[in-house]
Write a structure and sequence with these properties.
The chain is globular, with a radius of gyration of 29 Å. 11% of the residues lie in helices and 39% in strands.
Length: 562
Amino acid sequence: MKRIIKQLSAAAMMLAMMLTLTACPPDDNNNTIIDEPTTSTPSEMKRNLIGTWKSGSSSNYDVYIFSSDGSVKFYQYAGSSQIQEKDYTYTFDTSSMVIKLTGNGETKNLKVTNVTSTTLILDGTTFLKDNNWQPEDPSGGGSQNGERGPVAKSFKGSGTESDPYIISNAPELRKLADDVNSGMTYRDEFFKITADIKINKNVLNADGSLNGDGSNFEQWIPIGIDENHTFCGTLDGGMHKISGLYIDGMLLYEQGINASGLFGRLSGTVKNLIINDSYINGRYNNGSIAGEALTVKINDIIYYPMIQNIISYTTIVAKSWTGGIVGYFTLNHKFPDNDQICEISNCLFKGLLISDIGGTAGGIAGRVIITGNNSFAPKLKSNGNIIIRNCVNYGDIIFNSHGGFGIGGLIGSVVNGCYGDDTGGSRFYIRNCANFGNISFTETAGSGGLLGKSFGNKDRNWIYISNCVNYGITSNNVNSGAIIASMDDTDAYNNYYLETSCPRAFGYSGNSGTNYSMTAKQMKAQSFLNTLNSNAAALGDGYEQWGFGADGFPTLEYINNY
């Protein structure tokens, strides 16, 4: 009997030692967490999964929040800055121990090797349950309480078209800005955005106004600060969002930077990108994608801007040269051999523009110029063209000035100062576009539903507008028109406007072409939709078809996805 008791005592001591060895070390808060063995029943494993799981250090970490309704949120932080926030749905297959995430255009399979009430191991990474964790204050704030966030040291990828540089977070986007602003053009190189990026959160209130005074937001430094520091590569956004740009352009102007946007100066291609929840308070040259897009010549090679497939939800409050997508768009013929095409295509603006000093404002572009060394002279012969096509503006424009060079639902003003003849010459086209935004301004200013003012070559009509529609209200004063406020040597034909937008097609100018005032009933008819699509097909390849929008009026079909 004594021998049996001694054996039982020894077994008890051994069991106590094993339990001690299997206990987890204390966490950062000196609270001991026991790593329980994986629960054997599927229902218990799924129940344990529900909650908030955090891995990493105090400043660099990942968080998953699994909910009982099958949704999961993922957060990633670097240097205490939130660099990713994604929403997924999930399924947990307990037989294969795999969690499948679906969302954001991707599917991810995460291998589970342990799930208890306190510990989750996903793909070899240990997460501890922390149901007290909360994301950043939703009332708004910058990545570092108004300070600039971290900057990446390098990019993944080699910069070729097949292996582009990868931008997946805010630090990498800041690196692109710093590189270009230090003199790197990235000409003939390629970038790809692979995830949504948030610089600040809750920048705008529901009405489009700034949330607070801006002091708690990180100031975005535009990519390209002047003509000698401009981006000449290609950036493909993959239809991801860049959210929370906050730009105090007045402060930048004091530092010698007079262009505000994601890019300050752009001489390359930007495509497939959404700008969301962003605010620009600028002076000259302001646009959500680029303050100024311009041609440059490097080693006898001309680099020119292309802006394609952009969606922008941005409020811009500025002094002059303001556009929803680009502020100042220039095909500069200091290079008389330039025969390239500069283009803004398939761009949608759903923000707000407010301009309070002269200059120009337009829902897509503020001012567009085809020129030599200045706006009107020298008149150099060139075959280079600018095309604005398949663009739609839904943003209202408020112009608090008694003058200026033009206010337009699509384009503020156009200047074509280049020489042309019957054998060639530069041309500017606005084709297959629509404006739904209303324009308000002081009574002495004039506005056009599509174009504010046009200045063409005195010898030739090198500005063309066709198959465009205006639904937005302009004004009843004599300086305004439902199509163009003031036109000089411009052909405008087969354009249409809602009768309540303005009683006349053109303001103080002549007319070249046929344009049509229509009732709401006529515009909502199938026959009008057929006319627009027939006109679009006649323009050739690259022109989008029209469809009925939610309000019953025709709009470009791709708009209905946003």
